[in-house]
Amino acid sequence: MPAGFTPRDFYYLLPELVLTAGACLVLVLDVVLPRSRRLLVWAAMGTLAAAAVSLLAVDGVNTTVARDLLAIDGFAFFFKILFLLAAALTVAMSPGYLAVEGVRPGEYYFLILCATLGMMVMAGGIDLITLFIGLETMAVSFYVLTGYLRPNRRSNEAAIKYFVLGTFSMAILIYGMSLLYGLTGTTHLRAIATTLAAGDGGLMLPLAVLLLVAGIGFKIAAVPFHMWAPDVYEGAPSPVTAFLSVGSKAASFAMLLRIFVEGLPAFRVDGVGTAWGTPFGWTAFFYVLAILTMTVGNLAALTQGNIKRMLAYSSIAHAGYVLIGIVAGTTRGVTAALVYLMIYAFMQLGAFAVVVLMRRADIAGDELKDLTALSTTHPGAAVAMLIFMLSLGGIPPTAGFMGKLWVFGAAIDAGYVWLAVIGVANSALSLYYYVRVVVFMWSPDPGGESTPLRISPALAAVLIAAVAGTIGLGVYPRLLFDLAQASASTLGAVPAVGLR
Q1: What would the pLDDT profile of 410-435 be if each residue is shown by its tens digit?
Q2: pLDDT tens per residue across span 217-266
Q3: How far is it, in rounded angstroms, from Cα 204 to Cα 103?
Q4: How far is Cα 130 from Cα 113, in angstroms, rounded to an integer?
Q5: Who's near 418: CB < 8 A, 6+ residues apart?
Q6: If you ran DSSP here, which 8-state letter would residue 246 be given?
Q7: CB contact at 8 A, 478 and 174
Q8: How many Å apart are CA 260 and CA 265, to the nearest integer?
Q9: DSSP run (H or E) holding 64
């Protein structure tokens, strides 16, 4: 056993080990029992449930493991809960969709579990190499999942675009990491923070930060690094799009917070003054990205006729809202970002569950016109979609309203009043295309025929869970706020310089 790696580490890494074993089990079951689709679903769900139970065993722990490469803290705990929840809802909404598409589910569930494993490593990584390994595990899984519908040309095109642009952005990110390593002589984030706090990084530090912002900006689909998102979201299988828009985005934000708050607190501008001889720090980069991402995402979504592309641009806009909390830079700002990501998971996964419901043998179900008369063919799904659209638009008493209220409040509290004003204006603008979806659902079928839709028990459970989360966290958000605040307080290597 390598020096510094003890049996204690295996205990703290039990959720990741469970996911690894479960993914291998699913792959073996697919080979041994190729016709047992239901068994594969239960194996995947059982793996996620076992990982969640093992995660609860490390709740409240604040330590590092694996020779200080991974942090077991409240911040990682929060995101791991989010990832496991998103993966479980994705698996639950997938069986019927995969059956309609006529593809084998074994490798699909295996890749879902592998992507979740990569996300969990990203959330706990406090070393640049660890973060990169987690990111690659997640990204490669999504490259394959995006092109999983092999006979579908849109799926193949989306996978190629995602792979090419993803590898390009990865190269930029690694270049930024290598410059940071060259400046400090270490890849450990907390050691990087200590080194930079003790001396000037020169002109290479702003360049390293810029490259890191660009590389991570691609992963969170921030403007102008968002070009891949609409095509990939449209071409990928709908459950994969749902998981990609929630899990991958949240994991990338976790990595962003780890790198910039844990590793680069000295390069953050705290409202006034300068950073490293320049009039700005990484706050300025994210300030501009937040404005561009919110505005461009919402404006582009206004004209979309494909609901998956509309939700893609909506996802871009929501990344801008999360960036507001990061720009605030306070503990309250990071708390708001974590709260928003959890709330976003419920309403986004719920919306895509309705899109999955619309997929039938003869109907793709991803155009706005396909939602016509949904209030007649399936009133329950129509009401659920109404709740998700209102929540995405930030209408009370939904969770989306509370998330935006918390984010905008954190920005105002930190002195970024105009950023909050721009966020409110963008939120009002987004109501147009969200209400458009509602109008289609309550419009009568022009053909006069309305065949009732059938919904599987698993997909119905996903909709019920998503509605419960969207309404419940809007009416009583205190438990989520408390958990997020406790998680945010564990982040930050140098509290006097970073979080305040």
Answers
A1: 999 988 899 999 999 999 999 999 99
A2: 999 989 888 888 888 998 889 999 999 999 999 999 999 999 998 888 87
A3: 49
A4: 18
A5: none
A6: I
A7: no
A8: 6
A9: strand 63-65
